[in-house]
Amino acid sequence: MEWPALPLKDGNLLGFGTGTAWYKHDPSDPPNPELVKVLKAALFKGFVHIDTADSYGTEREVGTAIKESGIPRDKLFITTKVLDGWRDVPAALRKSLERLQLHYVDLYLLHNPYVIPTTEDLQNAWKGLEAVKAAGLARSIGVSNFQRQHLEAVLEVGTEVPALNQLELHPYLQRADDFVPWMRENGVEVSSFKTLSPITVAAGGPLDPVLTSIASNHKTAVSTVLLSWAIGHNIVPITTTSSSARMDEYIAAIALKLSAKEEEEITQVGLQHHFRWWGKKFFGQDDRS
């Protein structure tokens, strides 16, 4: 199967994540054999984009799974992120690469602007990401959980434009004030986590019957429909599961082509309801930005 990609970063439009709660553990603990098993299963199913972060405590498992899979490095797309190490990004990435057993990552993200005290600190952290790209330790660099003001601060001083912003995005949180078009106008692509929220943490909303009907028409799963909706908008969804059957559902989203009417119905019904899972303390109750 030919997996679609975003040309600017050669990144596949579907990623397998490792940020789920049961994966997380103290980095000093031995590697989690169950996670290694799940990751190898995902790789053998055909996932080539694996998403991790230093704060997840799962980089060693990703590295072990890659090594044990035998899949050539150049066939994979590996994303990781820096959180607490923002003050010395090169040192943080070297530690991540050691845990991943890799010489470079395909995409390195500044994980969370809200842990960085000042705009100047944020800009200096971004310069650290530019340094690791220049050193060949990261093929592409980007950000995660950034709002417009954070991106504007980076664009003000950066010699590199963030390749991508990974943030919560789904039909119930499509981001207000033309944020997604604005990012793309400035050369920043979009990746989503919690893409399946309408059928998981936000189930029971107005999209339930819509998604069920569309899935029935295509003889597929509702998760496949939601991921296809994201991919149809050139968004890179990051999702995960320990179930082999669920992996098949997710991969099926690559081949599923929703009609323009179906995509628009999901979009418009989704706009009728608001739900945010990540970072609620940073936003007002009705803030859709």
TrEMBL record:
This is NADP-dependent oxidoreductase domain-containing protein. PANTHER family: 2,5-DIKETO-D-GLUCONIC ACID REDUCTASE, NADP-DEPENDENT OXIDOREDUCTASE DOMAIN-CONTAINING PROTEIN. It holds the Pfam family Aldo_ket_red. CDD domains: AKR_AKR3C2-3. The keyword ATP-binding does not apply. Residues 14-269 form the NADP-dependent oxidoreductase domain. Keywords: NADP, Oxidoreductase. Substrate binds at residue 111. GO terms for molecular function: oxidoreductase activity, acting on NAD(P)H as acceptor; oxidoreductase activity, acting on the CH-OH group of donors, NAD or NADP as acceptor. The active site is at residue 56. The record marks 81 as: Lowers pKa of active site Tyr. The keyword Oxidoreductase applies. Coiled coil: none annotated. InterPro entries: AKR, AKR3C2/3, Aldo/ket_reductase_CS, NAD(P)_OxRdtase_dom_sf, NADP_OxRdtase_dom. Belongs to the aldo/keto reductase family.
